[in-house]
Amino acid sequence: MAMPPTRRDRWLALGLLLAALALAYLLLVHPWFTRPLLDINRDIADTQEREQRVDAQLQQRGQVQQRLQEVEAALQGRPGFLREPTAESAAAALSSRLQDAVASASPGNRSCTISNRSPLTDTARDAQFPRVALQVRLRCGVPEMAAVLHTLETGSPRLFVNNLNLLAQRFQASPNESGTGLDVSFELVGYLKPGAGTEAIAAPAAAAPGPAPAGLEPVGSAMAAPTDPGVAQPVDEGTIIED
């Protein structure tokens, strides 16, 4: 004679049924139905968020265009590229700008003089922005040197000071110099607009090396720094008096 199920047996059967249903859900329902639906809901939420961001950006379109026009107008007043059409004329402009900066920092060249300035050949001939550079050597006091560098790097068009070397020493190559300060060498670099100066830069490479004809100066002399009154010319190292 079978025993009637007790209360404990009923609860045990109910627990087994729930466990079987949970296992069936985890194995059959969740991977095939619930998870794909959750992924779809997540994609919908991400799409709605992106749409809201795009709408917010589109609403700012007028402000962005106005700001862009203001920036373009400001850049036209402060050009970043050198204005000269060729590398030779740009090198001459760099030399003149260097002279003006030195004269502004030290009127009469009493505390700052130009020892040497010579153009550097641009080796990256296939660069998008043609590079124009001068190798510069100055003898300046510390405040004057800081003023020269600040003037060069904050003016317009934009110039860059690379490979800066500072050497503190005493020297007096001319009566106008104070005798103390810095012996500074660096590269003064500017850039032409894309496509400008390409012919001028490529012309020296196309010419075959050889002695210049009699009565004609070498091509490199056209870019040499002019002799300016009141500006010190290249001085031999033997004239430097060090402590």
From TrEMBL:
Q: Where is this region: Disordered?
A: 218-243
What domain of life is recorded for the organism?
Bacteria
Question: Looking at the Swiss-Prot or TrEMBL record, what is one Pfam family this protein matches?
Answer: T2SSM_b
InterPro entries (UniProt xref): T2SSM_b
The protein in question is named: Type II secretion system protein GspM
Source species taxonomy: Bacteria, Pseudomonadati, Pseudomonadota, Gammaproteobacteria, Lysobacterales
Give me the gene this protein comes from. gspM
